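[Solved] Which block belongs to which protein?

Original post:
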Amino acid sequence: PIAKVSKADIDRAIGQQLAGQARIEEVTDSRPVQSGDLVVTEHVHESSEFAKLAQKELAALGGGDVRGVKQAPFVVLMGAAMPAALVEIGFLSNPEDEGNLGRSRYRADVAGSIARAVEAFAKRYDARRGVTKGVRGLQAAR
């Protein structure tokens, strides 16, 4: 079942983020985590799995620090009825990141990395559910 998120919960999470008080927790296992008053949905494990795949693909591009997979009550992910992740690909306040993000080739490489992570995740997700051919006719992973 999906947790109900009230407007008060969302307002509180936004306030915590703006004040720099949102709890961020390193993902070390697949147990659902409770963060503040927000109960994480059934998709925590799948979200973490996808985030790790995306991190691996993006790390292969080189450069930048690998900051790990973390969980926090980000407003943009609240109430998602599916696996979801927020992917940081750089910081405009960092001159190197700003330069990379300004190059179309780099942005295309980042998009390709995320697309490969989505396809890899979809294959695994489908295989766990007994689906042999997923979206776009991709063969499920075994």
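(Second protein starts here: sequence line, then its structure tokens.)
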Amino acid sequence: MTSINTLAQLLSQVTTAPAAEGAEEVLPPAVMAILAGLVAVEALGLWLLTALGAVRRDRLLLRQAPARPNRLHLLLALGLIVLQFILEGGAGLLLAPPAPGVPAEPTRLTEMHLVAMWIGRLLTLGVALWLARRTFAMGIGVGGLGLTSRRLGSDTLRGLGGLLAVYPVVLLLIVIAVRFVPLEHQGQHPVLEFVTTPGRGVGWQVLAVLTAVGLAPLLEELIFRGLLQSALRGPLGGPWGAILGAAAIFAGLHITAGLGNLHAIVPLGALAIGLGYLYERTGRLWPSIVMHAAFNAISLAATYAEAARAA
């Protein structure tokens, strides 16, 4: 679950507010200039660190990315994504069958759909871990898939630092996108819509929050970075090709699954590139999981803030 739409909604309200009645809009260039300035400062800082030798160029460019020897076929990794949709959809039909004659609302999430989501994703998580154990030479830990608690503290900081580095880029791309995509065509992630729907009990709210900041980052990073990106390394010629390929699939599936609109595909792709780079740089999944969870937490906080403002 990675919602660009909530941030887009908030930014579009901020960046399209006129300075006065009948006046020209003045905030969009200012906001874009600030974000562009932050991105430029980051790029300059990275260049200086590289020039001073504080960051090794070969490591920065992933020329020494940790190897993850495996015999995972690309079709198996892609099939796991399909399996998740099947399991979630099947559980949803069993727990919350559509009423006869009532049109289905595919993006409307009910309590039973949330339970079905957990069932489907936990089953998929089990299959993914089993598949990784069978196909990675070093298993799911260090040297293999990279799902390990080793260096947990430093990897948590790496994940938060990665988000700080990527976030200005994502926001800049959102601000650019909302200038071209009408607000009425921007959707909302079902989980984020669920938590702000009146009448939800505290227990259901907590379960939805755990979905957003726990289950979703864990499963998506395991599948898209751990399995899919690893499977793409060979066919696409190394770490960079794998990062871009997995990011394109990640962003594209979020759009086609109804979790966003075309305005979100480029920001989502930028976020996914950052997640993939962090995985290749460290060889461990925890930094990417933390970065993904922190991004979702910000989206969740923005959703609550927007709901409170509208109340």
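Accepted answer:
You had them paired correctly. Confirming on the second one: The mean pLDDT is 85.
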